[in-house]
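Input record (one chain):
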Amino acid sequence: MKIIKLIQKYSTGKNVILLFSITMVVYLTILFYSIPKVVTSAPEMKLFDVSPSGYTTDYAISLLNAIGPEGRDLYLSLQLPLDFIYPGLFIVSYSLLFAWLLKKNFDLESKVYYALYLPVLAGLFDYTENILIIMMLKTYPDLGSGLVTAASLATIIKSVLSSIFFTLLILSIIQVIWKSIFKKQRVQS
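The corresponding structure, as predicted from the sequence alone:
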């Protein structure tokens, strides 16, 4: 509960805007710069990080073959360093954003705040995924199926947790907007 209290304490509009902006800059850099750079030799293939339904050992080998030595090097030296910054920013900025929205609709003691653990868990699985991808890149071409399965599972869990979180975030935004509209209608009548 200490983590929730800490998130609630720092979930101010100013902190949310600042951290969300930084997070989006890193995310957009990954999406539009580092990922395309890594897959230059295989633009039709998806990197492990953006394969929400996971991947097989055969796919992992095919991808790492297709991107070649330069792509594998860029994966290690460009994509993954950025992707080690992003989960931390994701955890902090989205936890604060979510708490800020929840504070507009719920008492600070509400059990709904346990949902703040979702972005934390998603970020931790993103770190797990990244570590396992590094291991795959370092052991390539001798990829063990256990390693690939573990990395794929981390990717799937990260994706599921993120999807649940974003669904709840969108519902919270709708709730805040709805409450604001309803409040304005009551004031006008």
